[in-house]
Amino acid sequence: MLPEKFKERMKEMLSDDYDSFETALGEPSIRAVRVNTTKIPVDGFLNKTELFLSSISYAEEGFIPESCEGIGRSAEHHAGMFYVQDPGAMATVKALDIKEGWRVLDACAAPGGKASQLASAVGDSGLLLANEYVPKRAKIIVSNFERLGIKNALITSLDTARLAEMFSSYFDLVLCDAPCSGEGMFRKYDEAISEWSEENVILCAERQKEILKNLSGLVKDGGYLLYSTCTYSKEENEEVITAFLRKNPEFSLCSVNEKLVAATSDGLDGLTEARRFYPHLTKGEGQFIALLKKDENCSNLPTILYKENVKSPSKEEIAVFRKFISDNILGGLDGRIIKWGESLALLSHDLPLPPYSVFMPGVMLGEVKKGNFFPHHQLFSAFGARFKRQENLTRDDYRTEKYLRGEEIDATLPDNGWCAVLYEGVPLGGGKISSGKVKNHYPKGLRNN
Fold first, then answer.
1. What phi and psi values does residue 122 have, to the nearest 5 degrees?
2. pLDDT given for residue 449 in this prediction
3. Where do the H-state alpha helices sit in 337-418?
4. How is 3-53 classified by DSSP, letter by letter?
5. How far is C-alpha 206 from the chain's CA centre?
6. In sequence order, what are the residues at sequence separation of 6 or more whose Cβ sits closer than 8 angstroms to the Cβ of residue 369?
7. DSSP letters along 152-181, please?
8. Residue 72, Cβ neighbours under 10 Å: how many?
9. Other CB atoms within 10 Å distance of the CB of residue 417
10. Dihedrals φ, ψ of 238, to 5°?
């Protein structure tokens, strides 16, 4: 049951379109999949999948399946071929043409859908800082990034005010998918309805203004600040943007990509470049998008305002790891190796590691114990395609389901040693071959029961 006050507000906002809007809210929510181009190109995925898919006009890698039943248990999902994502949420990153090599920040990144979308867009030569203030939610990003094989990112859990103290004019793009009252999620989550109130709308708007103020200084001259919410209220959308532009004249509201314009409605109160995503107009949940560009002539230099504090591996650890690489991986690994807890991690990016609240510094490689190297699951997921030994499972292979259950499987390779386990050519996990068997190293928490 929709709150009466919410209905009154939306009737005033939508006028003659309100009945269509309310009818749409009574229908099931829409789930979509976004092909994870970090691991597989779109055409490669379409050639492999058995899902019946409808394309999404504004996202070439986005599709709506005929059914999503059991999709999270599929080998394709386990292998990180796709990310399940609402079409409206997918639209935000499509507001502009993101270039490979950009430095980007997702300031409110959990659960990681838009962040992983950004990571794929900037490519291995780019950098993604995925930040999430709530530590439990930051851990969810870590899990998703491991599955998706993200190599060019680090994950932090910091307040946006602290981010403002650490960076100045550093990022080509800052995404602020701000915490909001969640009106756009009403048909997806019942609690979004039960927790809604006008008072919460106002509280969210004040918090959003503070977050935008904190993030404005992180955008480089000529760079972009992309603001989005999953709510409809003008207080959290157009009024936040209007207030921000009034106080920050170096920013201006600009148009989004034409395909996204065609799938959305104009923003209200004269902000026609801003976009509103409505479920009665386009398949998906509610979303607001505003793309802001910073003046190119502000004379600000990109600056990192902190000192890195990291440990280096011991000579023994480096020697053991190098031998593992030589024995198992073609071409080695590019980047900087650091000690992270008891493990080694690979930083493929050039960003000095923040001194605190880092949840994932890069790719977790593994741990040296008693002169041997034990690889982490993320190493297999990110670099499995470069392992010398590969056990390639297929859809019709009886071993696929056994592997996903954590069971030992038959090996096809004659020699013993560490191997990557692939599914239809895409890195899934790892194992160790011994006497004709692959000892399963797929993490227990990821296995199908």
1. -85, -15
2. 86
3. 377-383, 399-404
4. -HHHHHHHHHHHGGGHHHHHHHHTSPPP-EEEE-TTTS-HHHHHHH----E
5. 26
6. none
7. SEEEE---HHHHHHHEES-EEEEEEE----
8. 10
9. 14
10. -60, -40
Q: What's the confidence (pLDDT) of residue 349?
A: 87
For residue 316, give Cα distances in angstroms to 312, 324, 370, 371, 418: 11, 12, 10, 8, 20
Q: Which of 108, 176, 180, 230 is catalytic?
A: 230
pLDDT for residue 400? 98
Q: Is 388 in contact with 329 (CB distance < 8 Å)?
A: yes
For the chain, report the end-to-end CA distance as a whole number of angstroms: 36
* Amino acid letter, 115: A
The DSSP element (H or E) to which 129 belongs, if any, is strand 127-131
pTM for this prediction: 0.96
Separation CA 92–CA 108 (nearest Å): 13
Whether 230 sits among the annotated catalytic residues: the reply is yes
Which parts of the chain register pLDDT below 70?
none
The strand ranges marked E within 230-362 are 251-254, 265-266, 275-277, 287-294, 303-304, 336-340, 343-347, 358-360
Q: Which pLDDT does position 332 carry in this prediction?
A: 86
Do strands 127-131 and 153-156 pair parallel, antiparallel, or not at all (unpaired)?
A: parallel
* Per-residue pLDDT, 34: 98
Phi, psi of 220 (to 5 degrees): -70, 160
Q: Is 350 in contact with 125 (CB distance < 8 Å)?
A: no
Q: Which secondary structure element, helix H or strand E, spans residue 143, and what is its range?
A: helix 135-148
Q: What is the mean pLDDT of the chain?
A: 96
- 254 close to 273: Cβ distance less than 8 angstroms: yes
DSSP state for residue 257 in the 8-state scheme: -
The answer to whether the CB of 303 falls within 8 A of the CB of 262 is no
Q: Tokens representing 134?
A: 């709530």
